Automatic annotation (TrEMBL):
<dbReference type="InterPro" id="IPR050964">
    <property type="entry name" value="Striated_Muscle_Regulatory"/>
</dbReference>
<feature type="domain" description="Fibronectin type-III">
    <location>
        <begin position="4"/>
        <end position="105"/>
    </location>
</feature>
<dbReference type="InterPro" id="IPR036179">
    <property type="entry name" value="Ig-like_dom_sf"/>
</dbReference>
<dbReference type="InterPro" id="IPR007110">
    <property type="entry name" value="Ig-like_dom"/>
</dbReference>
<dbReference type="InterPro" id="IPR003599">
    <property type="entry name" value="Ig_sub"/>
</dbReference>
<dbReference type="Pfam" id="PF07679">
    <property type="entry name" value="I-set"/>
</dbReference>
<keyword id="KW-0677">Repeat</keyword>
<dbReference type="GO" id="GO:0031430">
    <property type="term" value="C:M band"/>
</dbReference>
<protein>
    <recommendedName>
        <fullName>Ig-like domain-containing protein</fullName>
    </recommendedName>
</protein>
<dbReference type="Pfam" id="PF00041">
    <property type="entry name" value="fn3"/>
</dbReference>
<dbReference type="InterPro" id="IPR003961">
    <property type="entry name" value="FN3_dom"/>
</dbReference>
<feature type="domain" description="Ig-like">
    <location>
        <begin position="111"/>
        <end position="199"/>
    </location>
</feature>
<dbReference type="InterPro" id="IPR013098">
    <property type="entry name" value="Ig_I-set"/>
</dbReference>
<dbReference type="InterPro" id="IPR013783">
    <property type="entry name" value="Ig-like_fold"/>
</dbReference>
<dbReference type="GO" id="GO:0045214">
    <property type="term" value="P:sarcomere organization"/>
</dbReference>
<dbReference type="InterPro" id="IPR036116">
    <property type="entry name" value="FN3_sf"/>
</dbReference>
Length: 201
């Protein structure tokens, strides 16, 4: 009989809508074929604690890998693999690490400003900074506006957004910078806005 194959390694992944989990299973081929060519590998799984092993695929796997979906959520599963040649089946491989199958819904939360813009008064030619802190899943897209027109980083303005914080820096304020500064945060769950006035003296 062939030697047992290697311990199965599980690679779980989720479909786009995070519906049933898809599991990739890989293992090392048997080191010894028992004097007769290995025809394929039999993959079996069971719910943790159950004595009953179930075939994971209808036939034998010719390559040492299998993609599986449709396992019932809410259970923990273990996998094992056996090699088959003309004589029969090998002893089972080592059992895989247990895998919990959950129906994971991708967490989505609308954007929120945890620190909003404040009205700011500055002298001409001074440097001014506006800062917001935000949260949301997926990470919101942050945009800055002056009197309704979107602002981008340039020679005079610098926008930095990272780790839940976004700042707009105006290097040397001029009289035409006076007006309404607006910041928006949006993701697929929603859209929020915060506003403040820049006043020059």
């Amino acid at each position: 009989l062939p030697a047992p194959p290697g311990k199965p390694i599980l690679i779980p992944s989720f479909t786009e809508d995070s519906q049933p989990i898809i599991i990739g299973i890989r293992w090392e081929r048997s080191e010894y074929n028992g004097g007769s060519a290995i025809i394929g590998y039999l993959v079996e799984h069971r719910r943790l604690g159950s004595p009953h092993w179930v075939k994971s695929s209808p036939g034998l796997c010719t390559f040492p890998e299998l993609t599986l979906s449709g396992l019932e959520p809410g259970w923990r599963y273990q996998f094992r693999v056996r090699a088959q040649n003309a004589v029969g089946l090998s002893q089972p491989s080592q059992l895989s690490d247990p895998l919990t199958v959950t129906l994971q819904r991708a967490a989505v939360s609308p954007p929120k400003f945890t620190l909003e813009l404040k009205d700011t008064t500055a002298l001409e030619n001074e440097q001014v900074e506006f800062v917001v802190h935000f949260s949301g899943t997926p990470i919101p897209k942050i945009s800055w506006f002056k009197d309704g027109f979107e602002i981008f980083s340039s020679r005079r303005t610098k926008i930095i957004t990272e780790n839940g914080k976004s700042s707009l820096l105006i290097h040397q304020t001029a009289l035409n910078d006076e007006g309404e500064i607006k910041c928006t945060a949006s993701n697929r769950a929603g859209h929020v806005t915060t506003r403040a006035n820049l006043i020059l003296e």
